[in-house]
Amino acid sequence: MTDPRELRVTDSEREHVVGLLHKALSQALISLDEFTARTGKALAAVTRSELNGVLIDIPGLVRTDTVQEQRLELHSVLSKVRRRGQWDVPSELVVRCDQSACDLDFTVARIPYEVVRVEFDVRAAHVRVMLPFESTLDATMLQVLNCRYINKVRPGQVPGPRFDLSGKVRGGTLTITRPAALRLGSVQVRFPLKIDRIG
Q: What are all long-range contacts of 150-158, with beta carbons under 8 Å and residues at least 24 apart?
């Protein structure tokens, strides 16, 4: 079996680590010279061990254990399902809603994975997905049929987890957005007024 530390890394993983280095710089955990040197090493890294090597001495940025993938199914029929606040996000989430409502707020959730896969099986339901600021979205595998679809999350290279959406949404509404918020160091103020402590 291949050692996970020797697996090759992707550009998105390298960019994620550069984002973590930027966070360490903003918290004065490393100097500007260290940030520059480590960023160069991160962008040149080929394996996970090389990539983690630029973070290993910075508290709270590297997991030394392997995060086991998890799967969670949410079911809702003629009712409402909601996940918000600091909830634990699995690596794979299946959402089955029939004539109901689903509110998934990932803004301050605990997400230990680089990729979160969300599969929808939705019929005549109102679904709202709120993603964290530091995340990316891939909805190319998602089928939306006879549904009011609003996606306010633009594609781009942002450090953080990637959300892969798939499955079918038939009827109802689907809204994908980010919160209106102001970041002040380790505090995030959301509107309408809600204060979240990050980290």
A: 150/174, 150/175, 150/176, 150/177, 151/175, 151/176, 152/176, 152/177, 152/178, 153/177, 153/178, 157/12, 157/15, 158/19, 158/133, 158/134
The helix-helix angle for 11-26 and 32-44 (nearest 10°) equals: 170
In this prediction, residue 103 carries a pLDDT of 95
**Of 164, 133, 171, nearest to 149 (Cα)?**
171
Going through 11-70 in order, the beta strands assigned E by DSSP cover none
Q: Residue 143 — pLDDT band, cuts 50, 70, 90? A: very high
Q: What is the pLDDT of residue 25?
A: 82
Tokens 């600091």 -> residue: 86
